Amino acid sequence: MALGVSGIGIAPNFQFQPIFSNFKSKCRSRTTPTTVLARISNNTSDPSSSNGYPSPTLTHKFSGKPEADVIVIGSGIGGLCCGALLARYNEDVLVLESHDVPGGAAHSFEIKDYKFDSGPSLFSGFQSRGPQANPLAQVLDALGESIPCATYDSWMVYIPEGEFLSRIGPTKFFKDLRTYAGPNAEREWRKLLDAILPLSAAAMALPPLSIRGDLGVLSTAAVRYGPSLLKSFAQMGPKGALGATKLLRPFSEIIDSLELKDPFIRNWVDLLAFLLAGVRSDGILSAEMIYMFSEWYKPGCCLEYPLHGSGAVVDALVRGLKKFNGRLSLRSHVENIVVEDGRAIGVKLRGGQFVRAKKAVVSNASMWDTLNLLPKEALPEPYQERVKTTPQCESFMHLHLGFDAEGIRDDLGIHHIVVNEWERGVDADQNVVLISVPSVLSPDLAPPGKHILHAYTPGTEPFELWEGLDRRSNEYKELKAQRSEVMWKAVERALGPGFDRDKCDVKLVGTPLTHQRFLRRNRGTYGPAIKAGKGSFPGHSTPISQLFCCGDSTFPGIGVPAVAASGAIVANSLVSVSQHSELLDAVGI
To answer: In what residue span(s) does the Amine oxidase domain sit (predicted)?
Structure first.
């Protein structure tokens, strides 16, 4: 989400299924969601970190064979999916991670026996299988891994009109609409669902695991799944097929064509788009929104939370990597990508050690951070300028709490969304707060009788407010207190009078500087701010031979499903078509 909420901050596990005609086999280069990277520790604070989050450990000397077929820089979801699949393809893979825990924005960390998610917490589709399954589920299936989940079907919403339990499913939300928005909103919502749900078959026609970055895609995707795509168009009829042409256009165009004018409906759709991809409805692809609608508003649908936290997702990918003899080296900070005669031949680690890549180097860093790893003379000026001028999403404020469950209502839900003012827009700073209390579904994340909580402003915190501040200065501490207050108030609203902020066992406030420092994210950004219809995410190849990129700076974009798909696409592109086809056969898609 982007929420990396996949769409933003929440990074929900919605799937984005690209349409074949939108796939570009050769583009230029360009990582997920969201938050602070904290070292596993039992300390409530670290004197070297003004945020209370334990500081990253120093890089140690890499030990092991100093070469691999493929080197992957970064162990975010995209990098792990890429590395694990390459290992599944019998490639010698080495994933190099700067920090001492894997997972990037999806890692977990522990303080005083409280186990926190750092980023993604809203998921769906883990149990899906087959061609229309979630990209991450397809990767896990290929690795022979699964993730036990708790299921649920609602989250609390606090909006200017009031507060209510928003429920997914084909009919339950209509009751909420009648109560909080009126009969006109209900009519328009029915009109929207009637128009877009028939398009979902086309939006999900190509399994992301079938895509690759060369002409072999004609065999693994077009020939293999073309008939089912044509069949879905035929079943929709002329009107539906015409509507399917809008899948690669902004979702707002569909809303406008249906003449939907109810303020609540338009605001609600903007909020869903923002949670999914970090942009409003005029910036998100219709295909992405339509898939989400089909997942949330079909019979039998549910949301999922991985038992033992989002770190369980990372653990499953690492198990898959190691199962097929892939290697993961932590505290192995890449200082430079080494380029020789126009080819990426390996990386230089902090300390000067060289590790050779015989076939390829794959960067799971953002486009801006990848650029900084490369010698300037190795890249064309227009390419460098294009990366430097790509607009960025803003950063985050984070609040991680560990507190006593006594006095907190027993029916507390896992997710809460607070919108302070519709007029300012869901993408305005200090306006939307997302709250996750995963211990209500996975009690092992907190000590007995306790809860953990993660609140954040989803990709809306301006980096400019923080740029240049000394993290140990009073100015920084005062700004932290000021800018975190909106999250504290949202938490107090969601938890009720039984919650006392002064009695929390753990209180951690993260800022854009925390984001920048712990996640190695340029300016602490959530990712590229590329709007549908006005630009497209770069592909996975670069001007440098044997250098590829995956993650939220590449197609298909921001969010857990998207970065999983990007990692799979790069892995598929580095092996033969026959190997790729054999894998698709093996997982039954």
So the answer is: 77-572
